[in-house]
Automatic annotation (TrEMBL):
<protein>
    <submittedName>
        <fullName>Response regulator</fullName>
    </submittedName>
</protein>
<dbReference type="InterPro" id="IPR011006">
    <property type="entry name" value="CheY-like_superfamily"/>
</dbReference>
<feature type="region of interest" description="Disordered">
    <location>
        <begin position="33"/>
        <end position="64"/>
    </location>
</feature>
<keyword id="KW-0597">Phosphoprotein</keyword>
<feature type="modified residue" description="4-aspartylphosphate">
    <location>
        <position position="133"/>
    </location>
</feature>
<feature type="domain" description="Response regulatory">
    <location>
        <begin position="84"/>
        <end position="200"/>
    </location>
</feature>
<dbReference type="Pfam" id="PF00072">
    <property type="entry name" value="Response_reg"/>
</dbReference>
<dbReference type="GO" id="GO:0000160">
    <property type="term" value="P:phosphorelay signal transduction system"/>
</dbReference>
<feature type="compositionally biased region" description="Acidic residues">
    <location>
        <begin position="47"/>
        <end position="57"/>
    </location>
</feature>
<dbReference type="InterPro" id="IPR001789">
    <property type="entry name" value="Sig_transdc_resp-reg_receiver"/>
</dbReference>
<keyword id="KW-0902">Two-component regulatory system</keyword>
Length: 218
């Protein structure tokens, strides 16, 4: 403590403030400052973060789900178990509307900008229903319907026309062309929901298609 200007003083008699000033004096006269706190290695920090995340997930998994209140609506099934809808529509504004509505209803959807693209997507499989505009480039809705009906199993495919001229005779033309039903544009959410449930329920309850000639079950 002599170096800090406290010569001749009894260390026991120093107040805490005087002792702190004495130590600071040692730093100013060239003594090495106290060592900085040692940070944990990055690997250790990452491990601790991972352990904390695992603990949080385990706690969440162990928490039982609260029962639904009386009259409450159960959450929608995961997208993987919901029927998939293919939309053929060349108008971008209409694409956004129908995609938003299908999302609100919980149906996974894929949108094609013309009939040719819709046909290619359908051939990839995995779709349960088609919503199609009537007037599109390449293949219009009528040509797309004819092409899909010609595919194996295409006769049972729900095809719903989207038309802005349902009162002008186009609805009858859609049905005559082999489409299952029609919706007037712009589509309203409750009407769309009822239409999808009508045809998807009918498809789910229909018996499997008979095998094509020449095919048999092994």
């Amino acid at each position: 403590l002599a170096l800090a200007g406290c010569r001749g003083l009894d260390a026991n008699a120093l107040t805490r403030r005087q002792l702190l000033q004495a130590v600071q004096g040692l730093w100013l006269e060239g003594a090495a400052p106290p060592p900085a706190p040692v940070a944990a290695p990055p690997a250790q920090e990452a491990q601790e973060a991972e352990e904390a995340e695992e603990a949080a997930e385990a706690a969440e998994a162990a928490t039982p789900a609260a029962p639904l209140a009386e009259g409450a609506v159960a959450p929608l099934a995961p997208p993987a178990s919901r029927p998939r809808v293919l939309v053929a529509e060349d108008n971008e504004a209409n694409q956004k509307v129908i995609r938003f509505q299908l999302g609100k209803l919980g149906y996974p959807a894929e949108v094609a900008s013309d009939g040719e693209q819709a046909l290619a997507l359908w051939r990839q499989g995995g779709f349960d229903l088609l919503l199609t505009d009537l007037h599109m480039p390449r293949l219009d809705g009528y040509q797309l319907t004819a092409a899909l009906r010609a595919l194996p199993g295409g006769q049972d495919l729900p095809i719903i026309a989207l038309t802005a001229n349902a009162l002008g005779g186009e609805a009858e033309r859609c049905l005559a062309a082999g489409m299952s039903d029609y919706l007037s544009k712009p589509t309203r959410l409750p009407v769309l929901q009822a239409m999808l449930e009508k045809w998807l329920d009918a498809k789910a309850s229909s018996p499997p298609a008979a095998p094509a000639p020449g095919q048999r079950d092994d």
